[in-house]
Design goal:
Elements lengths: L5 E7 L13 H20 L4 E6 L2 E3 L8 E11 L3 E10 L5 E12 L17 H4 L5
Antiparallel strand pairs: 1-4, 2-6, 3-6, 4-5, 5-6
Length: 135
Amino acid sequence: METNMNFHTRKWVKPEDLNPNHSLFGGRLLQWIDEEAALYAIIQLENKHIVTKFISEINFISSPKQGDIIEIGIVATHFGKTSMTMQCEVRNKLTREQILTIDKIVFVNLDENGKPVPHGKTEITYVKDRLNPNE
């Protein structure tokens, strides 16, 4: 996985997040990842009209239990003409144990009519760098 992964989002595994095996339900984790990746894409592409296009193989490595705190890491790895590709890693916040990895999550930049449109981005930017430096 990418070394400059940003771990911004933390989730607390609660009883309603569990499967019958008393570990985190994989579908709930994938929901959290898709949401986090979408927010990351919206911020990077500066457009709220984006859609998940592709998620590669999902590698579940370990199972979080109730009470665990997990963190979701996302990093952009490639900018296409209308798309953005990311990597994801989920780990236990306290033990740093890897929980899941996804090599590729692809989002597509859309116009108001839902059609792919070029985004003009070529690298990761940060909101603070886009702000007016004179303010």
